[in-house]
Design the sequence.
């Protein structure tokens, strides 16, 4: 027989396979957010499942219509939930194959998140190895980028960033002196330290370009010399407009995809 009987398919789709997915990720209630819109409840359930590694890289999600049926919500709601997680980089769509948990780190270009948050939301454990942590006076170039007067103190941080023990990126940050009491307050997360002093950035400008890793960078990241990488420079600002951070992040080209959602001019 070329095609299975429709009833067989229905039993399989509506029965064992679907019950398993909702059992794996849990229902929409029970997440303590009963008043949140349904698409947000579904997003939260999926996010939690990814964070807790219940869903792993490359795991396929059921078809949208099956999820709608299983969670008793409309297909439009499912689509809206998945669209949001695709643009955040947690899920990825493959033409004709469906929606999957992203395997490479898909990083959203439109969210001002930290490395630590990016990794935790993907169920990875972030860690940093310090190359250096220092206080100094702003250089002429930094004074232009950060809008600080010559001689103003700044903090400089150089780190290798790891996820689950694998090196992912090299980061060189310069932070305006007013934003932190000392260099020592920065532990795993710079943004956590900035948040604690009320100086977490609220807006940022970024630019990205392709690079080939130098021998030193390749050594620190454990990749071959001249391997391809992405350099992203982020300049971030406080809600009052003051620049607080400029960071050069050298990401491993084989570990990251950058995603951005674009809307047509209307
Ligand atoms: C990200 C930022 C970087 C920021 C860091 C803070 C990009 C391209 N760069 O890596 O500018 O300094 O996060 O992370 O996203 P942390 O709070 O974990 O130290």
Sequence:
């Amino acid at each position: 027989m070329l095609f299975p009987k429709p009833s067989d398919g229905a039993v399989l789709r509506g029965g064992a396979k679907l019950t398993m997915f909702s059992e794996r990720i849990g229902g929409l209630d029970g997440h303590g957010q009963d008043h949140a819109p349904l698409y947000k409840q579904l997003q939260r359930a999926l996010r939690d499942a990814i964070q807790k590694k219940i869903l792993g890289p490359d795991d396929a999600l059921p078809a949208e219509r099956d999820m709608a049926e299983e969670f008793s919500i409309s297909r439009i709601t499912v689509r809206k939930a998945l669209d949001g997680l695709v643009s955040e980089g947690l899920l990825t769509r493959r033409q004709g194959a469906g929606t999957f948990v992203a395997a490479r780190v898909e990083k959203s270009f439109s969210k001002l998140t930290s490395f630590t948050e990016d990794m935790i939301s993907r169920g990875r454990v972030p860690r940093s190895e310090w190359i250096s942590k220092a206080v100094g006076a702003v250089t002429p170039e930094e004074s232009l980028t950060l809008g600080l007067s010559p001689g103003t103190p700044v903090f400089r941080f150089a780190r290798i960033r790891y996820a689950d023990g694998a090196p992912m990126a090299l980061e060189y940050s310069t932070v305006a002196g007013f934003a932190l009491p000392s260099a020592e307050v920065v532990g795993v997360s710079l943004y956590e330290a900035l948040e604690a002093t009320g100086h977490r950035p609220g807006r940022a400008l970024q630019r990205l370009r392709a690079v080939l890793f130098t021998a030193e960078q390749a050594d620190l990241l454990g990749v071959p010399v001249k391997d391809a990488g992405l350099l992203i420079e982020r300049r971030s600002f406080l809600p009052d407009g003051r620049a607080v951070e400029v960071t050069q992040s050298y990401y491993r080209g084989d570990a990251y995809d950058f995603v951005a959602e674009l809307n047509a001019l209307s």
About this structure: The two ends are 52 Å apart (CA to CA).
